[in-house]
Design a protein that fits this description.
The protein is an alpha/beta fold. Helices cover about 55% and strands about 10% of the residues. The protein has 20 helices and 8 strands. Strand 5 (about 230-240) and strand 6 form a beta hairpin. Helix 3 (about 35-45) runs antiparallel to helix 4, helix 15 packs antiparallel against helix 16 (about 325-340) and helix 15 packs parallel to helix 17.
């Protein structure tokens, strides 16, 4: 037998595989205008082909042409009503169009199909990310309508609570700015007469206003923000170290209608007594504004979320990271807080929510759709989920401006990432074995042996 000489044959299959897997995220983000036009021409010949419309929808989505993606996905779901990949892309497209209600309807409906643990986790995480997007979009809309809103008297029984301002030197205490605000919101929510603005909603407005820390204790700023979120009363406060091991806490209740201070509360105590100090200030504000509270409400306000101050500081750090959109760091801090005090329910809940959001934010959209598509239960009879039907109906007449050309859009999706899923879908990978490796960007080395 003639011996083979040792040789190495290196084949780069990136280009060929990208052409074969045009339906994958990388393939679609790298489509040229000519390639996209070719897909559209094919769709003209076969307008109801679900596989073709799904490939085209993925390409539109990657090019940020969300309204076009939605239309193509509507065709897919008419032909394949239990296609969960298409449903997921529909939710993502609605997010891109900032039709958040429709996106939420789809994700919630997918959750109702009793998906597997990981899929449920990703969907819950997506809902958390969606809520953050919605809050910031709402804040921007309020700022755009500020003149109109400033002429509308806000509800006097609705209260917004600013993050407290830390004016001391120990930076490890700074996260308590958020923690104290969350605690005041929780305490005031026990008073049935009052309605509280979500802490996250006000924080989104503060972020969009690019409000400096000093502005958080300015009555005029409080009044302005109150109008923007529909709150007739705004709580503002600050804290710092006092002589010895004490801490001083001051708060004011500002009327949004005239920017006047309606009540003040203050106190000083050891840092270890922070919860008692905060409760004292809350009771002072309620008393001075004349808000009646029942014995049951008083008892509820007096309850502590935790007796572990370190756990509360970790929780506050988690809120700080969460407000910055760093769900990975937030999840770690919330988890650490919950481990220190397993009865600290707010920390437990936030830990689960932030960890799910971290997983969802770290999952490329094409992978998210593939995972959800393979891990949700399809309704019997091939009937689309109620949420998908509703969402399609809600958004069918909505359009979004398209001020860019295809060449501007191709490859512009900031969230697009190289394909990492291990298999190519049979409908999108011509010439490759079903369930075989995607081989995107892979170098295959074949070594001939003697």
């Amino acid at each position: 037998m003639r011996p083979f000489r040792l040789g190495v044959f290196v084949t780069l299959v990136l280009g060929a595989t990208l052409a074969a897997c045009a339906g994958g995220a990388v393939g679609t983000t790298q489509l040229s205008p000519a390639d996209l036009s070719a897909l559209e021409a094919q769709r003209t010949q076969h307008p109801t082909d679900p596989d073709l419309n799904l490939r085209l929808a993925k390409a539109y989505y990657a090019a940020n042409r969300f309204a076009d993606a939605r239309k193509a996905l509507g065709v897919v779901l008419t032909q394949q009503p239990n296609n969960r990949v298409a449903e997921t892309y529909l939710g993502l497209s609605y997010e891109g169009m900032e039709q958040f209600d429709s996106a939420r309807t789809i994700y919630t409906s997918l959750l109702a199909t009793k998906p597997s643990g990981e899929v449920g986790r990703l969907l819950n995480g997506r809902l958390t990310l969606l809520a953050r997007k919605e809050l910031h979009a709402s804040a921007r809309a309020s700022l755009a309508r500020e003149t109109e809103l400033s002429r509308t008297p806000p509800d006097p029984n609705t209260v917004a609570v600013f993050p407290f301002r830390y004016t001391g030197q120990d930076t490890t205490l700074r996260p308590l700015e958020r923690g104290l605000a969350a605690l005041v919101v929780s305490d005031l929510s026990h008073v049935r007469r009052l309605r509280l603005v979500e802490r996250e909603r006000l924080q989104a407005l503060i972020d969009e206003m690019k409000l400096a820390a000093s502005g958080r204790v300015d009555p005029a700023t409080g009044a302005r923000s109150g109008h923007l979120v529909g709150a007739g009363q705004v709580v503002q406060g600050q804290f710092q170290e006092a002589p010895g091991t004490n801490i001083r806490l001051d708060a004011t209740m500002v009327r949004a209608g005239d920017a006047q201070i309606a009540a003040t509360g203050s106190g000083r105590d050891a840092l270890s007594q922070l919860f008692d100090l905060e409760k004292s200030v809350v009771f002072q504000l309620l008393t001075k504004t004349g808000v009646p509270i029942s014995p049951a409400e008083s008892i509820a306000i007096s309850e502590r979320p935790t007796r572990d101050l370190q756990a509360f500081l970790l929780y506050s750090r988690g809120l700080e990271s969460q407000d910055k959109g760093d769900f990975r760091a937030a999840g770690a801090d919330f988890k650490a807080a919950a481990q220190r005090d397993p009865t600290f329910q707010a920390a437990v809940q936030q830990s689960q929510s932030s960890e799910a959001a971290s997983s969802a934010s770290g999952t490329p959209d094409n992978t998210l759709a593939a995972v959800i598509g393979g891990g949700t239960g399809a309704p019997s009879g091939g009937v689309p989920t109620t949420g998908t039907t509703q969402a399609l109906q809600q958004g069918i007449n909505t359009t979004v401006p398209s001020g860019t050309t295809i060449s501007d859009q191709v490859g512009s999706n900031p969230t697009s990432q190289p394909r990492t899923d291990p298999v190519c879908e049979a409908a999108n990978c011509q010439g490759l074995p079903k369930g075989g490796p995607a081989l995107i960007g892979t170098i295959i080395i074949i070594i001939k042996r003697p």
